[in-house]
């Protein structure tokens, strides 16, 4: 049996004469590897900061719900209907950074758009004021509710922009180089394509 030895010149990412093509491949891979929970926790932290004026970094869904009674849902794939939506019940005491227009409680519930999408128009927002004379909550008037709701629709748009920025950061050129340096012994052909795994080495 004749033994054949194949020799091929392969490169690490830092050795490649032209890194652009290889890095775009890795960036695509990184996008597929993004943990949706990581983006959710990023958005949770940004929402909590907007509501309270206090930034505590990334926050779990359970912790956000415990602190302010809300959950975040998103779809950020650069497609029609993408965005961020907020659901739950928010009390004035939990959100001092919000302009409440004299109200005390707000609810964020799903509407018909939420069956297929996640964005600022997927929420029906209701606002309530406490009637101290009668001792119960009553619906805020339409004008006040709309002013309040506009804050949160604008906030959802800001959260979407922040989410896209975080995705861009996680898939940036610097992130791709760091990922290759720290996690993978990948080798590339001179044209930037992946070399067969048997040439990767250690």
> What class, by secondary structure content?
alpha+beta
Mean pLDDT: 87
| N-to-C order of helices and strands | HHHEEEEEHH
Low-confidence stretches: none
* Spatial shape: elongated
Query: Strand fraction band?
Result: 15-25%
Distance from N terminus to C terminus (CA atoms, Å) equals 29 Å
Please give the share of residues in helix. Answer: 25-40%
Q: Compute the number of helices.
A: 5
Please report the total strand number as a whole number: 5
Radius of gyration: 24 Å
Largest sheet: 5 strands, antiparallel
- Side-by-side strand order of the widest sheet: 1-2-3-4-5
Descriptive keywords:
single chain, 202 residues, alpha+beta, five-stranded antiparallel β-sheet, elongated
